Amino acid sequence: MGEKIDGEDGSTLYQRIFPGVRQQDRLDELLDAARQRGDLLSYELDGRDLTVRRPWYEGQDLPAIFEGLSPTDRAEHARVLFERVSAALARLGDGGHGAVHPGNVRLLEGGEFRLLDAVANATRLGRRARGQSGDAGGRWLWGSAIPQELDVARWDRLCLLRLTVLLAGGPESWRDPGPPQSVADRCRQFIAASRKKAIPGSDLLDALATAEEDLHQLLALGLEVLAPPAPAEASASRYHYACDGEQQGELPAAEIARRVAAAPASDHRVWSPELGDRWRPAREVGAVARLIGGTAVPPAPPSPPPPAASPPPVEKPAPVPAEEAEPAAPEPPGGEHPAEIVARLMSERKLPEERGRVVPAAAIAPIRRRAIDAGVPEDQVEPLISAWLAAGGYRREEILRQQATMLLEAGKLKDLPPIGGRFAVRASACEGAVRVFTSCGMAEKRARRLVGELLDQERLVAESEVRRAWLERAGNALDSLDPDGEPERRVVAAAETIAGELKAPPRWARRWLRRWQDEQRLERAAGSF
Q: What is the mean pLDDT of residues 369-381?
């Protein structure tokens, strides 16, 4: 850990030594960039020990903040954390951070989230190198090492997603996160729930889309890539390795354990001079067994030792009798792949070009039924349809409706009393909802009709309608006052009258009155021509 020190100018600094820095071509470039950003003040490299000095930050601890919140507030705070720290990670570029956990993310007094010791952590790893990714992170990270298949920047985004989900789940979630698959499932749920709350075009939506892509790649690689690196003594062990009777040379125990985990149904065997004169199942041998969680069997005494250092012949596993072999999975009718079936059905149906490539739900429902009848697994139909539409540049009307509804909800004027049980919505939010549809090529007239339907559905009313009805009252209130009175006093007096009648804030009443006056002046000016 680091220490608090006094700077030459009397300021408080933080100093820490990071051991085991990997020499890389861009080390000086990354450190200089961090110094220009203000992430560190100075650094010294002594062999493979990196000493950094940076400002001392008095910030709040993330778990302490989230622990005292209700589940609803935790979810809202988690979305804010995810959006802002995602932006902070993006500013680091491809150098990355390497250890995104609560010890390195601080909430400062002004509401800023500060990533600490970014380059100092990342330079210990190398951009694609496997290495320790933090000493204090523990359960907050996906693993104690960055898989070789992921670069540091993607690893950072995945760890931020995990950190956010654990904080949103409360103390029980981060004290016992559970297996990686369980956390991955909760990450998917967080992305889906946050997408419904996000405003169209916001940075949060972009961050969620990137997170979904990162999580998809991690799951495609297989969660076994997150297995911790082997202990030194286990990693140093090497064995001759054979899979399904085919010898594949001498490999480290860690690599053998990984191959066993990747293909559990295969016959994995190992041999070394200490194991005697026969090949043994990999799951039963010392270092490999410890790495994959098996039960280690003590090696047989090397008596008599093998006559040569070469391994004995390995027996190939007996073929499975035909009657015992698992039946092949049934193919869809005609031997088509599910994606080909969906593509054919989508191509056969003429999609409504006159609607600007916006496809209504009614056009998708029959295709979904026909795909299932043609043998496409039910859980694959929706993703395949979405992929085909996206590839063709189509947009689904129900998705656009969801985005427009979120925009309308965000534009509610909550400081105005409901009118007939309906909240007023800002004019800018209504226009934004219309643009959600017209930006995809839909005619403006139809887009406005759809927005009107959404307003009715959500029991909302456009601000323009409210203003039209209330401006009439504003004019009547002004006409009832002394026309020779001071103009500003007349506006204030009329506003108080309207505010009392409609139970509206006086500032809104004054705003509508001035708009009414402006409209009256425009009408008189137009009539003079």
A: 83
